# Entry
Amino acid sequence: MGRRSKEQGTVDRFVDLRAQGKPYEEIAKELNVDEATLIVWSGDYSETIKNLRAVRYEAIQSQGFATKEKRVELIGSRIDAIKKELEKRDLSTLNTKDLEELLIKYASLQDKLRESVTFTVRGDSLDFDLQEKRTWEG
# Structure
């Protein structure tokens, strides 16, 4: 194994540690590399570090409740359950008021998570709100 291979291994380990969010001081001690060198490497490999962080973050999100799709599904199911319960209730009771307030909060969360669709036509972006109907003229 030549000097270049050993250095590349050290750089790869640096990229991995930075993507984990480790501070320069800790990495310098582990790799026995001067912090100034690590700062230069950070600039040289910034895109790789960002991409690796994004991949790790995505993996963490996909493991549980954190995915947006799961949050949207949960909020939607809670709204359905609240609506069903409201249909059974006498709307003049305090518990009903609390339940209506909860429905408003969940509906607000659902609106915040709703995404619009963007199409690009001849270099122009067109945003669509899936809740609105639009009429197109030729």
User: Anything to note?
Assistant: The beta strands are 117-121, 124-128. The chain has two domains: 3-62, 68-113. The radius of gyration is 26 Å.
